[in-house]
């Protein structure tokens, strides 16, 4: 068996130790004689897995007790719709900071459903290369929440600060953050947020699971006309089991959380590794004549590193030779082209070293 280095933006690399443990437990979970996939979600065994997973996540992120943790389906994209359904039940508008494609999708979905919306700031004029500054935010007087995307996975643009949202009357506006592509990459102060959400398939586990962390006071304002599966309050009351949850993905997320705690040593340690990985790749890009990345230094994503070759005719050769060298999935998103190396938690530092060595070699051979 040869496992190669996987730089996919998502579904992304999983820690090898997690896959090995899942393999070990696949047919017979801890002597129970069946797979986790075959268990009732209401069984004592699965309820124990579910509770341990939540407890480990709460410990890793330091989630305060006045927040609920939901394990849902539908991806981050369904949250684009569930958020306004749940948070605008008493009126008001969703305010959005626009820093790229995913933030735009979140706004477009709220718009499509007929909710009031307002662009509080946008980095579009800079080609989404620089995050808007705190003092550029214009919060509307009817703002019920401020939504932003802490890391734009396609553009490779990451916030270097947590926005503060206040209306002109001084009222605090709950902050809602799509953390799909940088959750768990480092420590976080959850108490600054009203809602945090993320699709699992980058730093949490396999696709099919969506994590939502929601502050208690934001529950209970969804209108009764929405499906019960979309109502945070009902989902929270049922422990995310209004219907059958994605049990196996939930279990795998639990293994990833244990790996983060026990093998990595927590989110501070993860943060240090991630910074090192990203810094060395950006340094290699900046030092080269062939590769470039346009993002403002302070906003360069630690998780997704897009770069272009100065001659796009070399792209195919680059990708082919990278693949042959055991470096997978470096092609940029179809909407922007070029390359993208995603350096999520499970991508080991050796993978980044191997990529840098390959890039230098490729450049030298073309030079
Ligand atoms: N938000 C961000 C920042 C993303 O990167 C993605 C997926 N790449 C999404 C939302 C959409 O996630 P999903 O496919 O889980 O709906």
Automatic annotation (TrEMBL):
Its cofactor is pyridoxal 5'-phosphate. Its EC number is 2.6.1.52. One of its GO terms (molecular function) is O-phospho-L-serine:2-oxoglutarate aminotransferase activity. InterPro entries: Aminotrans_V_dom (IPR000192), Aminotrans_V_PyrdxlP_BS (IPR020578), Pser_aminoTfrase (IPR022278), PyrdxlP-dep_Trfase (IPR015424), PyrdxlP-dep_Trfase_major (IPR015421), PyrdxlP-dep_Trfase_small (IPR015422). L-glutamate binds at residue 42. Its main location: cytoplasm. Pathway: Cofactor biosynthesis; pyridoxine 5'-phosphate biosynthesis; pyridoxine 5'-phosphate from D-erythrose 4-phosphate: step 3/5; Amino-acid biosynthesis; L-serine biosynthesis; L-serine from 3-phospho-D-glycerate: step 2/3. Binds 1 pyridoxal phosphate per subunit. The keyword Cytoplasm applies. The keyword Magnesium does not apply. Pfam families: Aminotran_5 (PF00266). PROSITE patterns: AA_TRANSFER_CLASS_5 (PS00595). Pyridoxal 5'-phosphate binds at residues 76-77, 102, 153, 178, 201, 243-244. It catalyses: 4-(phosphooxy)-L-threonine + 2-oxoglutarate = (R)-3-hydroxy-2-oxo-4-phosphooxybutanoate + L-glutamate; O-phospho-L-serine + 2-oxoglutarate = 3-phosphooxypyruvate + L-glutamate. It is found in: Cytoplasm. Residues 5-355 form the Aminotransferase class V domain. The modification N6-(pyridoxal phosphate)lysine is found at residue 202. It is an enzyme of class 2 (transferase). Homodimer. Belongs to the class-V pyridoxal-phosphate-dependent aminotransferase family. SerC subfamily. This is Phosphoserine aminotransferase.
